[in-house]
Amino acid sequence: MLYSMTGFGKSTTEIAGKKITVEIKSLNSKQMDLNVRMPALFRHQEIELRNLVAHELERGKADMSVTLESVGSAITGAHVNSAVIAAYKAQIEALSADLGIPEPADWYNVLMRMPDVMTQDTTEEASPELSEALTSTVKAAVEELRQHRRAEGERLEEFFAARIKGIADLIPEVEKYEGERLVRIRTRMEDALSKVPVADYDKGRLEQEMIFYIEKLDVNEEKQRLRQHLRYFIDTLENPAGGQGKKLGFIALEMGIEINTLGSKSNHAEMQEIVVKMKDLLEQIKEQVLNVL
Fold this sequence. Notes:
By secondary structure, this protein is of the alpha+beta class. It is built from nine helices and six strands, in the order βββαββααβαααααα.
């Protein structure tokens, strides 16, 4: 069971005339990197909420945004400062008399646009009910993000399974050329040796050296280990515990070692073409493994 590190979650709660909105988005990252933006009203909860989100998300570069709005008839925090308005009006009237210019035709439009005309009541600390609502809203947003991550993880499972099968299907293609390859290498060596002017040599020793050289080109061990890595990769995909991203990355590296060795030993054009196809599929796997939690 895979979870992607990419996801988005949003939750909204209305309580006591207030609307709390929490949005969390995450991208891939080697470690947990959490950025939080929230009203000063909730600052006393920031550490608690950071720990909650970091524990649930485990890894990734995440941004959490918390907004607080007043709704309905509860919008009572804003007040018109009549004393400030009266002061502005008196100054404008005096200025009009001194400069001989007409007074504004629309006093409301002018005065309401002046600085500090509107005042907002602020509360230094959120009520316990509001704090609890924020915590539950964050949890709901995290859960939605986790569901999104799981959906992305299911798509990654299908992606990996197809590429792993593609590599596995190419291994028998390699085997088609193995016998021909060894015969061709031996023939080429014998032809090259026949052109070398030598007085005498130990044919038995030469045969031993040729057998030793050809054995070094044998790729059965590489194929066997590659098949084991492919099975291990699939088994790891199906692990219900989750958190397999780093492990899958290590397995992909081991697969790359066997494929590279297979290519260096092949010494055969058709086999090298097959190895290139394997490398292409493996690079696609490595690229997407970076997104796995």
